[in-house]
Amino acid sequence: MKDLDVFVLVAVFQEMLGWLFWPLVILVVLGLVGFVGVIVRDRGIYARRFVIAELVGVAGGFFGIWLMLTITSSQLSDIGGPIDWVLMVVIWLAGAIGAAVVAYIGLAALDSTRRSPVAQRAPPLEAASRA
Amino acid sequence: MPSIAAVSRRGLMVSGISALGAAAFGLPRQAFSQVKTKARIVIAGAGAAGLAAAARLSDRLDGAQITLIDARKEHYYQPGFTLVAGGLKPAGYTISSTASHIPRGVTLIEETVAEFDPEGRKVKTSSGRSVEYDFLIVATGLHLDYAAIAGMDTSLIGSNGIGSVYAGPEFAAATWRELSRFADAGGVGLFGRPAIEMKCAGAPLKYTFIADDHLRRRGNRGRAELIYAANNNTLFGVPIVSEKVRMLFQDRGVKVVHDHVMTAIDPARRIATFRTPQGTRDIGYDFVNVIPPMRAPDAVRNSPLPWRDGPFAADGWLDVDRHTLRHRRYRNVFGVGDIAGVPKGKTAASVKWQVPVAVDHLVADIDGKVSTASYNGYTSCPLITRIGRAMLVEFDYDNNLVPSFPGVIAPLEELWVSWVMKEIALKPTYLAMLRGQA
Fold this sequence. Notes:
The complex is a heterodimer of chains A (131) and B (438).
Chain A: H1 6-17, H2 21-42, H3 47-71, H4 82-114, H5 117-121, H6 125-130
Helix pairs in contact in A: 2-4, 3-4
Chain B: H1 9-24, E1 35-36, E2 40-44, H2 48-60, E3 61-62, E4 65-69, E5 74-76, H3 81-85, E6 95-97, E7 107-109, E8 113-117, E9 122-125, E10 130-132, E11 135-138, E12 143-144, E13 162-163, H4 169-185, E14 187-192, H5 203-217, E15 224-229, H6 239-252, E16 254-257, E17 261-266, E18 271-276, E19 279-284, E20 287-289, E21 294-295, H7 298-301, E22 333-335, H8 348-367, E23 379-386, E24 389-395, H9 416-434
Parallel strand pairs in B: 1-3, 2-4, 2-11, 4-7, 11-22, 13-20, 14-15, 14-20, 15-16
Antiparallel strand pairs in B: 5-6, 8-9, 9-10, 12-21, 17-18, 18-19, 23-24
Helix pairs in contact in B: 2-8, 4-5
């Protein structure tokens, strides 16, 4: 793999994910932009949303691991060396961060449509610390 | 070794990143400035090597007349055969249409090359059509010589305990049905390899490990005896890997017999006959993975192109320089993939590294330049040691281990990460290779 560059990686991921590749890339970018957008709009992070998003994230991490084991016909006992644990942690983090970001954006969207009194009462973390 | 790319690493990265946008619209990458030419290039064979060569040539040449000749309508992802025969993937996982991989601007003649005439610089197809060329790339693949084992025929695969991973997707699926039956019933499982050059010498070992794992998962390992009949006194061509496999076979309880070459099979009595230094020996089986001797196709064997002496002469492998893949007597002929008469590599990984080198030399010839690209024999084998673990073994002509991720992915360690690569990353890499992008 002496020519392992960005382009080869993109080509391989394109083949791996097929038509899903670019929609997924767009989804990731939109998710990050949306997350940053919500934080900027609210001028901080809402603690309640953040805690729920973190809990969803924990579940998302384990879902990621379950998904990876399923699609690769593997089981936890196949973990063999340190790099396997590293990969496992990376997969967990990817699942956790992805799920947490999606959950946070979703909660923000719900709050803004419902204009939840709880959300309105709870000030952003930064605002709270300033007060 | 100088990079095969005519641009610097940084240049490649910059062009790669700038090409990301282009790739979004399905445009071809152009890391090289195209060479204008009217050259006629014939590629005999539209397997992995032929298609990858066609893709790279059409990327690098402007105006060349590139013709692929192959009668096979279906393209097989052969590295997937072991997974099909291991019950992990359906037969369809390995099948696509040849036409879907033909690069734009490349002509496909759906016939077989029947005759090579390197003196006259032309080939004759099965219908008698003559196709002239300025450059020829021979990528015909090889012939599975089942007839060389007395009593053996592909029609036997999938019955009477006979399996054979190599013969094709449906045969691999039929092999799985027999292995699965064996994993339920137990008995003697017989594995091995032929004495001559073969494609993916790791596959027979992988399949032995997979059989062992299925037996264990079904609680029947105690009811089975697994025998690996090695053709010589090693288990793998690379000594350090051979020794590791010996240890793993010992750990799994696989009995090894050496210097056994299968010469005949009796399906009715379920007996395989081997040639050994002590004479012939019969071994009974309840499941056997038959691996036929592999040889160059007749059209190549009957042409002036094979080696005339040395270890690659008897089976008709193409007489090419091991570092440039250029024919040693006909300078406008190259040989890539399974047909190339070079040590070790008859794998998709070999193709991945051979094709860019051969193409670089061919393009340099057209451009009036000299290529310094060199192939060091790199090949790789994700050696499955059980379902869920593999060893990512990479090596070169000199039996050196050449790991892609030194210090990160240990080549002789059974790892999940290596299995994951085999399961989900290898086929996409292969498909990207067919498009000249990996």
